[in-house]
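[Automated response] Your request has been received and processed.

Submitted sequence:
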Amino acid sequence: MIGRLNHVAIAVRDLNAAVATYKNALGAKVTDPTPQPEHGVTVVFVELPNTKIEFLEPLGENSPIAKFLERNPDGGIHHVCYEVDDILAARDQLKAQGARVLGDGNPKIGAHGKPVLFLHPKDFLGTLTELEQV
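Generated structure:
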């Protein structure tokens, strides 16, 4: 079921500072910021040869990233995202095995314009896990 690692998401307080760090210190190629109001974040992607790093900056006080940053003032890894061929089949298989799908259990459109789901961190070694259909 699980495919390749699509991205690792890092919550940040200051998107511009995070981008500057990766561009200046690491010479990274970084996309332009994209607001995702339906998810309460603004995102940029650091493009790597084999995967991506996603920076998440809160978009408003009610952003789940704002809540994450309250608990983790310096930011940090927020989630990992794996690719799946069929997100509904993956969801159904995981639920049958007892995994909890966050939200209403239905896929939403993610930052790449593809269906995504999030899985409860307590079911996956303390790590918030995103699945993205490719």
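Summary generated for your ticket: The first strand starts at residue 5 and ends at 11. The beta strands are 5-11, 29-30, 34-36, 41-47, 52-58, 76-84, 108-109, 115-119, 129-133.
If you did not submit this request, please reply to this message.
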